[in-house]
Amino acid sequence: MLAYPSSIDLSSRTLRFLTGQPAVRRQEIRTRWRRLSAARQALLALAHLRCGDTYAQLAAGFGIGIATVFRYIREAVEVLSALAPSLAEAMRTIRAKAFLILDGTLLPIDRIATDTPYYSGKHKRHRENVQVPTDDPFGRLLRASPALPGSTHDLTAARRHGITEALADAGLKCWADKAYQDAGGPVRVPFRGRRLKRWNRRHNTTHAKNRCVGEQTMATLKDWRLLRKLRCSTNRITDVMKAVLVLHHASA
Prior knowledge:
The chain is α/β, with parallel strands linked by helices. It has 2 domains: 12-81, no CATH class; 87-232, no CATH class. Helix content is 46%, strand content 12%. The chain contains 9 helices and 6 strands. α1 packs across α2, α1 packs across α4 and α3 (55-62) packs across α4 (66-81). It is elongated, with a radius of gyration of 20 Å.
């Protein structure tokens, strides 16, 4: 396999942040020697998460084995995912905001046709459902919920993760799309139907303007090319999503 120099569209600050995490982990487990330094391991993980490079490509580029690439990336993802905020921590952050934008994203995954629970009828593909709340007006991603099979409805996922209950307890205003129609409490959704009254249409227009910040922020997640097609085990997608969220904050 041929190898060539490439680049990652991230700042050196992100690399320094990620380098510090494996370095601490190595001290904790008292690692004596490794094929790659902590900085090279961090660069390896960024190339995988940001550019979506496969294990084989990374193994050829860094001059190590595929199994070693797998271990290095898995270690980096586990360390980063542990830094991701919990629901309680996200709620404390949200209380200082004007209101919240709640939306779900369906991440494409590499599954076979028999994996029915992961099949999304909306997109006609196998996907995983992740709920991502965003603050306003800054559009900062606050948390990534555990991944659920793509056939799970957004409202069902929000209830299963306790998001709607936490919003009701905190008394926070939340803007969401039509998928959260029966959420109740502080969750506000647009009116449905074709023949709406004028004030209903004005409400929907204002609602869409408020939600557009969240939509734009969610789109920035696709800059992490690994999320465009996840080929790992479905059991690891939650940790991968949390790791990307932590790096996304570090690079902001």
